[in-house]
TrEMBL record:
This is CN hydrolase domain-containing protein. It comes from Caenorhabditis auriculariae. Gene3D superfamilies: Carbon-nitrogen hydrolase (3.60.110.10). The active site is at residue 57. InterPro entries: C-N_Hydrolase (IPR003010), C-N_Hydrolase_sf (IPR036526), Nitrilase/CN_hydratase_CS (IPR000132), Nitrilases_CHs (IPR044149). Belongs to the carbon-nitrogen hydrolase superfamily. Nitrilase family. It holds the Pfam family CN_hydrolase. Residues 17-284 form the CN hydrolase domain. The keyword Signal applies. PANTHER family: CN HYDROLASE DOMAIN-CONTAINING PROTEIN (PTHR46044:SF1), NITRILASE (PTHR46044).
């Protein structure tokens, strides 16, 4: 992968790139209408000049907040299994038709598109981020390494093979999903891949989230952009028990999307209780200015004392070995 090229024209031209952070939720168990909403919001952001559009965690596939999937310690209910079946069917696949639609949208609008999705791979779901660029199409994905609490009952764990930072025309982009942002070794890995635009799709709507994002921006001397869902109970289908319990207007996830520059300055303040698209203007030249006195994977490290080792190889639970050549098979 190509290294970032720093512009050497100093202040000759100030090139700012506009990034859109979408704060919205999607229709649970209705992937086609969620995809329509994604397309509408992406078109709006692109029309406003955004070159990268970021969606929150699990936007496609959904984040069924407050749902217990019928789980108590030691047993699972039949209703919970049916709930999971519906959720399973709402997930999308790498290379599937939704994925192709996102690729097409990114190409048509000449933007990068980064979307939190629930990914189905065979019979397991993952909380993933899919990355698209207009130049290269589907760039790849990141699967959440460590789902939090009850999430572990509905999502599998990603392995070390989906922790890339991608080179795009807006900069080098990588993602940490929700509480992966509290995994300091994963952050260090992203810094070592020279992440310039650190993306944090989330559903964490706490006040302290902003402090976390500021710390990461300062620590990594990179731009940090976080998109959080804004979700009302009306996102559940009308026949769903949680819709009946909460009605239409209960706020399940209140937002709080934000953006911070490499010196920790807030570019986008969190706004709670609304669906919105927020915009940040970024200038990659701020990164070397910031790294001047702090590079936590370079001049500000002590590898003689501390080192991080990372296993990026895909972990396969079934390895099939077949040494026979195709000509060994008898055709009949
Ligand atoms: C995506 O774009 C290709 C090429 O333009 C087109 O053939 C295809 O039908 C599109 N697919 C979808 C799902 O939009």
């Amino acid at each position: 992968m190509a290294k970032p090229r720093w512009r050497d024209d100093l202040r000759a031209v100030l090139v700012m790139t506009r990034i859109a952070i979408v704060q919205a939720g999607s229709a649970l168990y209705d992937t086609s209408s969620s995809l329509e909403k994604l397309e509408k919001l992406t078109r709006e952001a692109a029309a406003n000049g955004a070159k990268l559009v970021l969606f929150p965690e699990a936007f496609l596939g959904g984040y069924p907040k407050l749902n217990d999937f019928g789980i108590v310690l030691g047993t699972r209910s039949a209703e919970g299994r049916e709930e999971f079946r519906r959720y399973f069917n709402s997930a999308i696949e790498e290379g599937g038709s939704e994925c192709v639609q996102l690729e097409n949208l990114s190409r048509e609008l000449q933007i990068c598109l980064v979307v939190g999705v629930v990914e189905r791979a065979k019979s397991t779901l993952y909380c993933s981020v899919f990355f698209f660029s207009h130049e290269q199409g589907f760039l790849g994905k990141h699967r959440k390494l460590m789902p939090t609490a009850l999430e572990r009952c509905i999502w599998g764990q990603g392995d070390g093979s989906t922790m890339s930072v991608f080179n795009t025309d807006v900069g080098r982009i990588g993602a940490a999903i929700c509480w992966e942002n509290y995994m300091p070794l994963y952050r260090t890995h992203l810094y070592s891949k020279e992440v310039q635009i650190y993306l944090a799709p989330t559903v964490d709507d706490r006040d302290v989230w902003l402090s976390t994002m500021r710390t990461i921006a300062l620590e990594g001397r990179c731009y940090v952009l976080s998109a959080c869902q804004f979700l009302r109970s009306a996102a559940y289908p009308e026949d769903h028990p949680l819709r009946k319990k909460f009605g239409d207007d209960e706020i399940l996830i209140r937002g709080g999307s934000c953006a911070v520059d490499p010196m920790g300055r807030i570019l986008v303040e969190p706004e709670f209780g609304v669906e919105t698209i927020r915009y940040a203007e970024i200038d990659l030249d701020e990164i070397p200015r910031g790294k001047f006195d702090l590079d936590v994977v370079g001049h500000y490290t002590r590898p003689d004392i501390f080192q991080l080792s990372v296993n990026e190889s895909p972990q396969l639970s079934v390895c099939t070995k077949n040494d026979r050549k195709s000509t060994d098979f008898i055709q009949d």
